[in-house]
Amino acid sequence: MTTTVAVAGSTGSIGTQTLEVIDTDPERYRVSALTAGSSWEAVAEQALHYRPDVVVLADKTNHAALRQALPAQIAVAVGSDALESVVADADVTVNGIVGFAGLPATLACLEAGKRLGLANKESLIAAGPVVQKARRTPGAELIPVDSEHAAIHQCLRGTSDPRRITRLQITASGGPFRGRTADELASVTVKEALAHPTWAMGPKITIDSSTLMNKGLEVIEAIELFGAPSDLETELGFDDIDVVVHPQSIVHSMATFSDGSTIAQLSNPNMRGPIGYALAYPDRLGAPFGEVDWAQPMTLTFEPPDRTAFPCLDLAFAAGRIGGTAPAWLSAANEVAVEAFLDERISWSEIAVVVEQVLTLHDGGMGETLESVLEGDRLARVRAHEALSRSSHPQGTQS
Ligand SMILES: NC(=O)c1ccc[n+]([C@@H]2O[C@H](COP(=O)([O-])OP(=O)(O)OC[C@H]3O[C@@H](n4cnc5c(N)ncnc54)[C@H](OP(=O)(O)O)[C@@H]3O)[C@@H](O)[C@H]2O)c1
User: Fold this and answer.
1) CATH number of the domain at 323-399, please?
2) pTM for the structure as a whole
């Protein structure tokens, strides 16, 4: 039977790689919907190739141009309602939208009782309690696409009782600035921050990897995924998660059992592997992605992160421990700060300063309803823009 797949954020790094995975088994998977933010030409080109039922653009501006570029058999729609409806119709959605904008797709898929392959970690982090409620919809399945969580998912599947897991080790490449001191990091440029040593990804997550905020977000994501009711529920909290810097990005994460044994998932860095895992689960994809050649010599190294040079990591732990809407505030403030850094309005080091300033203003919101999450996100963005206006970094000084 063919599985229909909605690719949300199809023009991005995760989206295009999802299409490449689907290409390996066109009998098994059919693209039913493609969605993008504003890149209408790129999504039109994809639609002419994959012939989905519908294409959705978030930005209304180029609706007419997109309509004109596609044959009448392919429906064209704009806006959030259309996105929610195409996601609800597909058997599986891979959510590769970047940032908080991914929340409607996450909720619509789970509330329709369908499978969600989740790359868009920000929606789960910002709206944890709301997403957990949606996850309880009969038929709903949340399979992580983030490589670390796909790894942990595979480690936990191997045990009859996930409560026998006592610690998780989430690995981090360390990003482009591993080994640098806080002083050395004060003057790094956007270009340097975008030069990730092991993964080719979209700009926002690449900057998050350089600050280790991505790893902090992944710690919160791990608690949401594996600390909440599901068939892989553990009893783990924030004190039970280690972040381990592993520059080769071959070990994607690990789980340690009560008897002291650690199991890990290994493959070369290639996001098509975790994407295929989320599509095929509980089966496996027929095509290998990132298979390790064990006949070749290889050295794997592990070291603790430098929490002084990369303060975003502990800011994320702090937000996770506060709970409620604090992770939403952290994630929103980070989105605003990263955008400002990419626009060269603040320095790299000021990303953490902005996030910390916003987090200290958290209002104790609990985030149990969608409205309160949306309000938390809105307020945090206001506070982040206020923090930016206090920033001392002169515009245009980076190259
Ligand atoms: N890339 C990776 O290897 C990787 C690995 C693990 C997790 N993730 C996570 O996956 C998500 C996507 O990352 P990415 O690297 O693929 O990002 P990306 O390359 O920047 O792609 C983002 C996608 O989201 C769309 N989009 C942007 N703003 C939107 C909006 N307001 N409404 C609807 N769609 C919008 C973009 O459309 P336009 O092209 O029209 O702007 C694009 O299709 C992030 O949450 C990231 O943390 C990524």
Assistant:
1) 1.10.1740.10
2) 0.97
